[in-house]
Specification:
heterodimer; A: 374 residues; 5-stranded mixed sheet; 4-stranded antiparallel sheet; 12 helices; 9 strands; B: 513 residues; 13 strands; globular
């Protein structure tokens, strides 16, 4: 299943950033002694440049919600897929992460092949939960059998018998799990029909309305306007809506350190997504979620107000350790005065603002003496 | 006083301990009370060797219950039942497990041999203990000898050994005045374990002891960090002028560089930038993006480590930072107390409930990282053949030289030291050969660089953390898409190599025909 998608994923997620490089390989050969080839070449080049980056039509964002909880939303379908496919930005409001709701539901409504290929993620989650509950049911059944056996018995012979039964049961459970894993691929899950459709989901002609939109984190939106301008909004407009129209240092400080950290990891090639499910700020994927699990969890640490609560550290480290990820504390420290930052901010020299913050990182890991003796 | 170097005879200590089958169930305090006429009393276990034996006996008792196995096998831990299920079987199993434990405890030999008794006398104004007749395996890793050939245990070691029954704790009677017979039995007063605990000066000291004892019991060698320790840092003298000019130079260049990057950034983050400037590959864009957020410099090899150490020494005595407490070595047989090798870990003890202490802040961490002085494991990663002895220094002299000198002395005095060499070969780690650059990068990212252990104390519960310096800022992980032409090219070359004559017929790649 995964292998089947590997090639198509490579084509689909060819570019890790929403601004594409010019593909010079498709240019014709430039023959220096032939002026005609120059003309041909420059024409091709011009065409390439115009097509390569969608700078002519920037993606429209809407900032909804009140002043306290602004949401940065992308609502048109093309923009949503573009942002997902070129760097995995944003989260679909009705999906797990990739905005797949429309395709999923459309196929369900029209009855074509149930869950389509595009909605693998949701399908996988669903199947996994079903399998797990089946497994748990079997385990409970076996445990009950064992209990009855134990209640009936006493003495040494029955002890041996019980341990035999335990071994057999374990074998059975293992076999069951293996068979489940084998069936993974060819289970065409067509029976899912428990969705109830609401009339408001359709237009007058009975077509499904695109109800889903893509929500961007404020730092993502900043990256997509300030660093790589693909949204049709200026950084200043964005900050005024997302932060506050009348900024003071205290109101923007937290956002700045969050963005500095986000940009730091993005710019070294990581795919950075929200880490809220692991109790941290960011998750770092190599390339992106369809390719690999996230290896690192990032918590942005404010150098001005250090955390002194070991319980807090211990909690998060346990959650992250349980998911076999590495926890990185990313300390962001300001290298110039607050006044200077505010001056630059008011002049809209954001690159100077962010450049005045330095990142240093530590890895936090539980250490068990007994496992590190040799 | 026995010299430390001459204590070698493991076996000579061991033999009498096995013969002792006299069982006494008296605890520490009783033996202490009776110890004035100590000649006909059996004391507590005299040295740690005996304890090892006792450990074996314990398990053999349990193993005997399992009648199928006559051999000594440490039994595997059974599986825990999830909850009481009210069955007789569960009761029976529980009962047996409990019995096995009590049997093991009650059948083991207790007590020690009077001849092997080691007395340690606590001296309050030194806050350490004088050992009157030092012997036993603990000498290999603990204690030190002063200029008058007196053998001293520091307070941690004293309490730890007293708790294990390896030394018998005493203090001097207040009335004792005569100087020549100061340590005669008449002047000594036996101490209980509780008494020794009362000698702790602060809560922090007690926390530190808990960590010390915990690691010791697990077999680690633990010593307090001191200025005389072996160091990786060779240059003891400071060239202040040189370092001053160096730092001024650094400041100027950094100013210049930041000006330059600001100019670059102003261009790159101009909203119209991508309209006018085109890039031919994604890495080009990434490289431009990278300039925005500066990241801290992390030393990665020995020279950089020494540089950072030099800088740290110059900046020292600024502010009040947390200090490391212990050097920790993994359990090992070739530990040398006099000329130690670099420790495997360094530990900082922190009590989470003490208002005067705080979890290390970023500045603390920087300070701690700079002051670290251990066997930097990431250097091993870089170079498999890295020899630490050549790169660690005792009083400014390389450790390998020091070791050779001491070995020469030994060979002059007695038999050649046979043991040291084969042990060294064994300790060389096995490493899987030739891993890919991706895997190596991942290992670097996940392990980080300089690291220390933080022992967090919470009402007697110790949890350890390993805190390492990470550097994601100097690794690039972006994906470089393989362009169409590259694939074509390699295909073409491949075909060409296979059939050099038939290249006109290959029309798979359009350009050839």
């Amino acid at each position: 299943m995964v292998k089947h998608n590997a090639r198509s994923n490579n084509v689909r997620y060819k570019y890790p950033l929403p601004i594409h490089p010019v593909d010079t390989t498709s240019l014709p050969h430039l023959i220096l002694q032939n002026p005609l080839s120059w003309i041909h070449w420059s024409y091709k080049y011009y065409k390439l440049v115009c097509n390569s980056t969608n700078l002519c039509d920037r993606i429209n964002v809407e900032i909804t919600g009140g002043d306290i909880y602004p949401h940065v939303m992308v609502e048109d379908a093309q923009g949503m897929t573009y942002l997902w496919e070129n760097g995995f930005f944003g989260t679909g409001t009705l999906s797990r992460s990739e905005p797949t709701w429309f395709n999923r539901t459309d196929k369900l409504v029209n009855g074509t092949e149930g869950w389509g290929q595009d909605s693998q993620l949701e399908k996988i989650t669903r199947n996994r939960r079903l399998e797990r509950s089946e497994f748990k049911k079997l385990r409970e059944k076996l445990e009950n059998e064992l209990l009855i056996l134990r209640q009936q018995s006493n003495g040494d012979e029955s002890l041996e018998k019980i341990s035999e039964v335990v071994l057999k049961q374990r074998e059975q459970l293992r076999a069951f799990k293996a068979s489940q894993e084998q069936n993974h691929g060819d289970e065409g899950d067509n029976t899912v029909n428990d969705l109830e459709f609401d009339e408001q989901m359709f237009d007058d002609e009975g077509n499904l309305l695109p109800l889903e939109s893509l929500e961007l984190m404020p730092v993502e939106a900043t990256f997509l306007t300030f660093a790589l301008p693909v949204l049709n909004i200026t950084p200043t407009q964005l900050f005024q809506r997302v932060l506050t129209p009348t900024p003071t240092y205290e109101t923007i400080h937290n956002f700045i350190i969050q963005y500095a950290s986000y940009h730091h990891y993005r710019s070294h090639g990581w795919c950075v997504r929200s880490g809220i499910k692991f109790g941290c700020d960011y998750l770092l994927y190599k390339r992106g979620p369809p390719f690999q699990h996230a290896e690192f969890c990032i918590t942005v640490m404010d150098n001005d107000s250090p955390r002194d609560d070991y319980t807090w550290y211990s909690r998060i480290s346990r959650v992250i350790g349980g998911a076999k990820k590495t926890w990185i504390l990313s300390y962001v420290s300001r290298t110039t005065s607050k006044e200077q930052i505010m001056k630059w901010w008011e002049k809209e020299q954001y690159h100077k603002v962010f450049h005045a913050y330095e990142v240093n990182e530590i890895i936090y890991k539980r250490w068990v003496p007994g496992k590190n003796r040799d | 006083m026995a010299d430390v170097g001459n204590i070698t005879g493991k076996k000579s200590v061991k033999k009498p301990s096995k013969k002792s089958r006299n069982k006494t169930h008296k605890d520490n305090n009783i033996t202490n009370e009776l110890s004035n006429d100590n000649d006909d009393l059996i004391q507590q276990a005299a040295d740690s060797d005996l304890e090892d034996d006792a450990l074996g006996q314990d398990w053999s008792e349990i193993a005997k219950l399992n009648k199928k196995n006559a051999q000594l096998i440490i039994p595997k831990r059974g599986e825990k039942d999830y909850e009481p299920d009210g069955t007789n079987i569960q009761e029976l199993l529980l009962y047996r497990a409990r019995e096995a434990m009590f049997d093991a405890l009650s059948n083991s030999a207790r007590g020690g041999i009077v001849k092997n008794e080691v007395k340690a006398v606590y001296i309050p104004n030194k806050h350490s203990a004088l050992v009157l007749n030092p012997k036993g395996t603990f000498l290999q890793t603990m204690g030190n000898v002063d200029n008058d050939d007196n053998f001293w245990l520091n307070f941690n070691e004293f309490l730890y050994l007293a708790e294990r029954g390896t030394v018998i704790p005493y203090c001097l009677k207040l009335t004792s005045t005569s100087t020549d017979k100061l340590y005669e039995d008449d002047n000594l007063l036996p101490l209980g374990i509780e008494d020794i605990y009362a000698f702790f000066k602060t809560q922090h000291e007690m926390d530190q002891f808990s960590v010390f004892a915990h690691l010791k019991r697990l077999g680690f060698v633990v010593n307090r960090i001191s200025a005389k320790d072996t160091t990786y840092y060779s240059n003891l003298k400071q060239n202040f002028l040189k370092s001053a000019t160096h730092s001024v130079f650094k400041q100027i260049t950094s100013l210049f560089i930041s000006q330059k990057t600001n100019m670059f950034n102003a261009l790159f983050y101009n909203p119209l930038h991508f309209k006018f400037i085109k890039y031919t590959s994604t890495p080009q864009i990434y490289r431009k993006l990278k300039h925005l957020i500066p990241h801290a410099w992390v030393p990665k090899n020995l020279y950089q480590l020494q540089d950072s150490k030099r800088e740290f020494i110059n900046q020292k005595s600024k502010g009040n930072f947390l200090e490391l407490t212990y050097n920790v070595w993994k359990p090992q047989t070739n530990y040398k107390k006099k000329n130690t090798n670099l420790p495997d870990y360094q530990v900082l003890v922190y009590n989470k409930n003490d208002n005067k202490q705080h979890f290390p802040t970023n500045d603390d961490l920087k300070h701690i990282f700079a002051s670290l002085n251990y066997k930097f494991e990431f250097l091993d990663e870089v170079d498999d053949e890295f020899e630490w002895d050549k790169h660690s220094y005792i009083n400014g002299v390389s450790r390998s030289v020091v070791l050779k000198q001491t070995q020469k002395k030994k060979t002059n005095l007695s038999k050649p030291n046979i043991q040291s060499k084969p042990v060294k070969n064994q300790s060389k780690k096995f490493r899987p050969p030739s891993t890919t650059s991706h895997a190596k990068q991942m290992r670097r990212l996940k392990n980080g660089y300089r690291s220390f252990l933080l022992a967090v104390m919470d009402n007697g519960i110790i949890s350890f953390l390993k805190i390492s310096e990470a550097d994601l800022g100097s690794e690039d992980v972006w994906y470089v898409p393989t362009t169409q032409s590259k694939i074509k090219k390699t295909q073409y070359q491949y075909k060409k190599r296979q059939s050099p004559k038939s290249n006109t017929t290959t029309d798979g790649t359009g350009k050839l025909v």
